[in-house]
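Entry 14. Ran structure prediction on the chain below.
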Amino acid sequence: MESSRGSDPPSRRLSRTFTTGTFSEVMDSEVVPSSLSTIAPILRVANEIEQESPRVAYLCRFYAFERAHKLDPTSSGRGVRQFKTALLQRLERDADPTLQSRRKKSDAREMQNFYQQYYENYVKSLERSADQIDRAQLAKAFQTAAVLFEVLRAVNLTESAEVDPEIMEAGKDVEARKEIYVPYNILPLDRGSANQAVMRFPEIKAAASALRNTRGLPLPQHFEQSRHRGSEWDLLDWLQIMFGFQKDNVANQREHLILLLANVHIRLKPKPESQNKLDDLALDKVMDKLFKNYKNWCKFLRRKSNHWLPTIQQEIQQHKILYMGLYLLIWGEAANLRFMPECLCYIYHRMAYELHGMLTGDVSSATGEKIKPAYGGDEKGADENSFLRKVVTPIYEIIAEEAKCNKNGTARHSSWRNYDDLNEYFWSPDCFRLGWPMRTDADFFVKPPRDEKIFQRSFRGKHKAYWIGKTNFVEIRTFWHLFRSFDRMWAFFILALQAMIVVAWNGRGSPLSIFDTRVFKKVLSIFITAAILRLLQAILDIAFMFKAYRSMKFTDVLRYILKVLVAVAWVIILPVCYAHTWENPTGLIGTVKGWLGHRWKSPSLYVSAVVIYLIPNALGIILFLLPMLRRWIEQSNWRIVQLLLWWSQPPLFIARGMHENPFALFKYTVFWILLLVSKFTFSYYIEVKPLVQPTKDIMNMRVHTYQWHELFPEAKNNVGVVVTLWAPVILVYFMDTQIWYAVYSTIFGGINGAFRRLGEIRTLGMLRSRFRSLPGAFNTNLVPADKVTRKGFSLARKFAKVEPGKTKEAAKFAQLWNGVITSFRSEDLISNREMDLLLVPYSSDPNLNLVQWPPFLLASKIPIALDMAKGFRGQDEELLRRINADEYMKCAVEECYQSLKHVLNVIVVGQTEKKVIREIWHDVETKIAEGVLFEKFKMSALPLLYEKFVQLVEILVVGNVSEREKVILLLQDMLEVATRDIMEESKGEILDSSHGSSTTQSGVLGVAYRQLFDSGGSEPAVLYPPPKSAAWIEQIKRLQLLLTTKESAMDVPTNLEARRRIAFFTNSLFMDMPSAPKVCDMLSFSVLTPYYSEEILYTRKLLELENEDGVSILFYLQKIYPDEWKNFMERIECEGEAEIWATEGNENEVRHWASYRSQTLARTVRGMMYYRQAIKLQAFLDMGTDEEIWDGYKAVQSATEEAKKSQRSIHAQIEAIADMKFTYVATCQNYGIHKRSGDPRATEILKLMLLYPSLRVAYIDEVEVREKDKTKKEYYSVLVKAVNNLDQEIYRIKLPGEPKLGEGKPENQNHAIIFTRGEALQAIDMNQDN
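Output, structure tokens:
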């Protein structure tokens, strides 16, 4: 067994014990070099079983060392040498101690004995109780057993020992089941997980069953063999074999497609007859959304889509799923190509043609053979990475080369192509010249030139490829963009200013003078100005597009040239025609007319020219007024339409038909008409008109001696004065539009807000006055109704108040309201007392027949009502009217009365006592019904009864057993006050009834003479302490608040952020919103948060680190959030700051408290996970029975672990529906690097995943591999989740190269977007939490 390793060559098997070396710290199974990542599972198993069997853990580490030595014998990889040294030192340290702890005579026997015990006592027991355990725990058990069996075989091979047949059978069973219980993301699709709650949805079953319909597919030989081995396979497996997709890409998109189909299927209205069969309508809806861009692309390029469906009805669904699966697999493996959607359309178009050919057995016209995939698809099928290597990588390499030419943003924009430029290559039919397989000598694959001289395109022959350069747009930075980007606005304002000046100068000062013939003729000169501005626009177009002319089509270049020529022509034609409209012109017009002659004198010539000039504008106005027609024209692919559009815009694939609906367009038009009318009216009367006469006077002045500035020493006129007079006015004229926009936006925004009912509740006072309407608003807007009622129009929408008979509606609202309040407490926005005052009882008793409002609404109502009643002298109706005038006082009195009856009914169990109490209640309620309560009863003693009852409630809140005698005395005191001081007329009958039955007790001596509520006899009369349940404790605390809270609760909550959130939440309930669907009918969506290397959680060191002013982060946060810090100290039950670092739990709480008030990943994750909490709560309200709703959502959350593990429980069902509807992925790009380097940030990310089990983390894994004595890096997109306090890899998809080619954030999101689910995606940065 033991031998020296000093003389062994590297290829010889190393021994398992050593005699030299230094000890090292405990090996972390996560700090493993990337080139040795395959041994990480072995080290994890070693850490897991360390306590149970140190020797087996040692053998696992030794086997891991051997594997590491085989993977990298020369330790050339980064960090390999250090890792192997540390592991070797650990082995040397553990060799002798573990050998002494060995129970068997040899390591082989030790391994076999431990493996057999692990298999029988743990793995098999978990499998037998599979319905009651976590599926991930079972999968981990099989993976651990597989690693142990691998180590066992290696140890037995070393010692030449035979493995027992039973253990071999167990190992084979584990190996087979390990392939079944694979790690999963949301859906466990293996055969052993059909009992999981999420797999019980019939829509999930239907979608999964549709994917397994592989009937009639042509299969390669080896695929048939794998099928006969009994493994389950489906349509995506077939696509993987035929086209060479990666295995994890197939698994990822399989789950993605199933969830898409199931979520659409579950929303179908009306429901299909068979829920277990995928409905064709659901399939068509998903297909239409998925291929919308592809179909538009085909229409734009005038190509038929390659979606060919069979005539046999049974095969149509199969072919549709194959097309969708093929597109998703292409998208899932496209990496950086996902920034080029039309490039993906081209790839899919080609591969869909091959798919159709294989399904139908067509013969290729080029080769004369059956159609096969161009990249793979031989008789053995394609290898796993063939699509990535042969299709994605060549295009990726071109993108990478173009990115290098960027030179970190310093290169000229025209010298390199970005994603958009490369994608626009596929907007032209020329893209089909790439062929399939793609020609590597095509223009697209020409790398960008590095020499500036090569940019000058030269004629290299008809068929020689060249770098095609930029397309459609080249960025040129100039101030002229200020004019060109807003040319219509500038032109409109300039022409309007010219018209106003002409009218004010030539008319009588009134705008109506424009109808004067001479004035109107001068106003028409604005079209000459418009022609000049259009010429400037055409010249700027050429200047801005000049650097892209090499890659532009001839027709595009021709359009720009013709636009300049036409603009020049109009600049000549319009002045000439305008000059001929004047009979005796002077000045410049007279000079022009003198040049051209005096033959034409009719003004109709100029008018005709203007009409012709305005034809394009008239067409634009018509299309503006008819947005449907405009949208159809822009989206049309007819050649005649595109020929007409050629003059106005280039034939771009995107941004066509992007117009608002007619009503929105009408509102937009009215808004701007009113705004511009106001602006021009103001400008004319305030800015332009007052300056006209002074300008005329200045121009008419005759000054012979000018004293100008030295810059104008030769000036001989008053033009400079006029310029200085008009310049500020013109400047204000162009700027005051923003002022008018602010004014009208405020007016229209206020009107719009009133119609949408924004701001119904703005203060806490308004909240209290309308709180009774909140349950009605909640049930109307957020609780799905069987029938959707049509909402009428009203400026002040009213909701029905919840009546005592409709406590179920109030109970539903209570769950939502309490969820909001408890989140405030968890964030330390409110204190414990404020939370108790704001909460509504979680559980409700339908027998109470009353609505229980939050105590902050009922605070001080009982003491006030008591003061009103004790000195009241009058009729019952008068006091009842006063109490009913305050709704909350009425509710408080009724609730206290019902609660008193409930408390006495619980704690009083003696039959005699119960009879006495029933008679008291009967007498009281009879007097109330007759209206003679104050006439028959003496209410002056009511405060004394109140005092005794308060003492009783306070004792019940504490629940001290030693207070039993005091409880009995208080009950007797209350009885005496009620019967002797209040009920004077009825006390005799009640007391007689109590004594009359005492003689009927058992014959035990003294029992017949016991007092009421005393504990004589075998059965006690008072049950104290009563059985404690969450509902009982909640009710007693609430009753204490109602009785003892005398001060006003108007300042609850005191925290401003809590007030803002409550006002925002309650105000949103009164908004005009669509009726909410059930959770199962809502859209599924995902949230994506990019993370690089920012703070996740503040460390203690960072919190206490002081800056140059001596202020630490924690001290600063304590000062700006003093109330929240006080609430936090109350929550963790610490008296002083010295205690907050006393325990590890308190330290973590402090770190979280500070991190949640800074820009950290933990804050963002917590905020986004509120989505999931809201979905679960809403699902509970949708799916819960009446009894479960009465018990409250808190009962579901606080259920036992055994109850939660049941896959049929309400807890499992709402978790499953939340998994279907919501996914959260944090794209922690460097998580793998941080984990291997032992960076604490990796540990913090893992803690986040443990805190939020549904959180998924996607990262880029850089792995070093050796090829032909060279080391290179491979990149993978990896998705992990937390299982058993460790991260578990779910998917690992290889990338064509480094994903970061341009900006970091979008490419970080891009690599992780394939792991998102649902029909909507929300990208949230780290600076947001809601």
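Residues 2 and 577 are 111 Å apart (CA to CA). Will compare against last week's run tomorrow.
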